Predict the 3D structure of the following.
Amino acid sequence: MERITLTNDLSFSRIVHGAWRLNDWNYTTEQTTSLIEHCIEQGITTFDHADIYGGYTCEELFGRALQAKPGLRDKMELVTKCGIVLESPNRPEHKSHHYNTSKEHIIRSVENSLSSLKTDYIDTLLIHRPDPMMNPEEVAEAFSELKDSGKVRTFGVSNFKRHQLNMLQSYLDDKLITNQVEVSAYELENIHDGTLDLCMEHRMPVMAWSPLAGGAVFSGNGEKAVRLRDTLTKVGAELGTEDISEVLYAWILKHPATIMPIVGSGKTARIDSAVRALGHKLSLDQWFEILHASMGHDVP
Ligand SMILES: NC(=O)c1ccc[n+]([C@@H]2O[C@H](COP(=O)([O-])OP(=O)(O)OC[C@H]3O[C@@H](n4cnc5c(N)ncnc54)[C@H](OP(=O)(O)O)[C@@H]3O)[C@@H](O)[C@H]2O)c1
């Protein structure tokens, strides 16, 4: 599996696995351990989390699997996020849904993530969403304390647009190493609005969430989903596959922004589709044919 260099001593697997839906899968700890081991066998060593996933449960479920198999943690990179506050029975002290990127909240969130994931360090911590009340000096102080204590190795952001990323970066000593944003052939916003250009300008590899549009491409009955499915099926036939998810991943992988798709399925066959996509090389004709199908018209 190709590796993407983030810093001198940190690289991610080109395909990342995401734990957002882990609680929905109702896996036993043994099944979760097997899933993680399957990913690692395929070369997927980077796992994406957030404190809030599964109503603050997914990190804990993953952590139990790590605890059950000592040694597993050393074979992976753990990414997690903070900054969103959700009302939840697991956080009775939360009174409302809002954002909190204060120093105190960031540090407390990391302490919780470390305890849930049963690890003593996070490879990369992301600010989950841009916060209109973000005080960049506090974020910088939190990052610096977390780095000095060895609790977090590197930092990044998620869903940040140009002005938000540049503003935060200007307060930090270390370079933000990634921006995790939604990218798929179905959701083109970050391609069209310059967010991927921004990441390239910063030489910052991108993590792509919902690379299959959360499943909408497979199940949607709207004109766009149908049009896209038809084109993906046609291009898939040209590439020798009936699995349109391979084509969706290959479309992202061809983009020059060095995009790491995050696989959202807990099914091993679907994880393997993402890995197989690395073997497909779309032509420019095919790439634009898919873009046109998504937009519903040609490029100007
Ligand atoms: N930073 C952020 O704000 C943010 C936001 C959202 C997500 N994320 C991250 O990105 C990761 C991936 O997001 P995602 O889960 O939305 O990814 P996705 O891969 O776009 O969507 C996964 C969904 O698609 C379904 N699916 C996959 N292959 C399919 C197929 N061949 N036919 C029908 N359905 C299929 C899956 O169902 P099955 O489960 O049945 O396979 C699952 O429900 C998350 O786990 C999380 O780590 C980050």
